[in-house]
Amino acid sequence: MSNPMKILLLSTALASLAGGFFVLDKAGMIGGLPDPVGVKLQGQLPPLTPLQPTPRAFFRPTTRKGYWNIDVVGDFQLPPTKTLIFSAAGRNLHVDQSWDKLFRRGFSAIDQTRMVGGSEVWREPGMPPANWRSRLKPSQRSLTIYRNYYIDEPFALAWSRDSELARQTWYRRPPSHPQARKTMYQASYELCGQCVNYGDCPPGTLKNTNGFIFFDLENDGTSAGNQQEHANMYVYMAKTVKENTMPYTQIGSITPVPHNSFGYSRTSDYTAGPEWLWTKPAQHTATSRQRGMPDDIVGKSFSDYMDIAMPGTYYLYPDFDYTIPHHADDARHWLASLVGEQEVNMALTNKRRVAWQWLFNTQSSEFANSAKASNAAPPAIAEGMSIFYWFTGAYGVLFWDDHNRLTPSQPVPRDPALQGLGDDRNYACYEHYLHGLWRLFKHHGDLFNGREKYLNQNTECSFDGGQTWYKYNANQLKTKSLPFVRAIVNGDQILVSATMPYAQANQSTRVLVRYVENGYRFYSQIQLRGDEIYLGRATMSR
Questions:
Q1: Which domain of life is it from (predicted)?
Q2: Whose CA is closest to 109, among 78, 133, 72?
Q3: pLDDT-wise least confident of 28-42, 135-149, 350-364, 391-405
Q4: Quick one: which of 395, 388, 284 has its CA closest to 350?
Q5: Which of 304, 156, 150, 300 is nearest to 218 (CA)?
Q6: Domain range annotation of the chain
Q7: How far is Cα 478 from Cα 496, in angstroms, rounded to an integer?
Q8: pTM score, two decimals?
Q9: DSSP letters spanning 278-305
């Protein structure tokens, strides 16, 4: 989160340390908050150190419907300090020829719904053979718990669909009760049986052996009078699931999160506090003990049981539209929302962050061309998502799609309602996304070793040829129509990503970036063409 006072003090300190080399520019205002104070350079610009541009792969994006080519780039792996979970479409296109190819294309785990039955997860009737074991390591497994798991029989917990039913939902009943399974305890506890599906239950017990478990209930909204009951249910659910997993299992939830900007990146997001359901402690109500709520969750919040926070955003079609303005404080802007969401949330939690990412527009009848999820992210946006996101210091991504298996080159659907959906989509956006991952981690994976420093909104840039230097957050870059630049420093290495969002193909943009901390005096210039996603690295000198 941007803190104007801290930035003002930092700018003042830099001016003092420089012995008069800098003078302070007058602060402006944006959205009711003061801009960071510009640091004005006196005298000549120091010598520039060129950044070495990262190679690009050359490929012809697919034009086939229902298909994407996983071989547009070669082999590379994600650093062990990060995770990238495949819950998207089209693994069936290549898995029979090379089951592990996803792991050689940057992904590090697979959602259970995308696993191969019989070799990765047991789906056959009855128990697996005594000597059977999944070929996937626990760190390569991910389980998403959707609301229907709780809604459907045998648990029939309608609360998962309607939060107002929290006060009618039972926490736990005696095992002998005829409706003992229709409780939050039983539904959450029985997830421990997942180890049977992988053939690796601990001796004498059942524990969930997925490396990751993610909730996707999306029922967090509720009336004010129901908030305590609803929070209690979330806390108890999370506690019960966590108690029945392995120590290495990491748990997260798409909602609630510390703060959800819903794809906007407004000034007000930077002063927002955490969402109530994320932090509200469990407390007994008039009927909670009667319904089996235990005393040991009193005072605990949902966030206490989460290993992972999941701030992120799905895009709407306006985010992909290059013909409309994107620079108002409340305007939708693909990169400001991607980066800004992380800037806001990293100030509200120190938990690992994993965002859900989807390369098609989410559905909304309130926005143009968004009624169906039929519009793919343009090339620069797809590539930029897979590069800029990691510059925020986030731990991982759950790469999601509303479709699973793909059947390429299908004729136009007979049902017009299916046009532009599923097999009728063009999935070249996946290839651009994969290309971005390859550029970043194939060539710079060594920098993500746990010792890197993410500058985020402390990345210092000049937009006037080096006369004045600013540290802007994502909202400020958006509203000022400036290029986005973010940097990572690791020892004497600096890695820089940059782009001019929504720029036209013939547009040229110049920006300077510097790093003048820890004895380094690094200055460099970046020349951007159109909306290209620039990535460059340099060795800094003292």
A1: Bacteria
A2: 78
A3: 28-42
A4: 395
A5: 150
A6: 4-53+454-539, 108-310
A7: 19
A8: 0.92
A9: HHPPB---TTTTTTT--GGGBT--GGGG
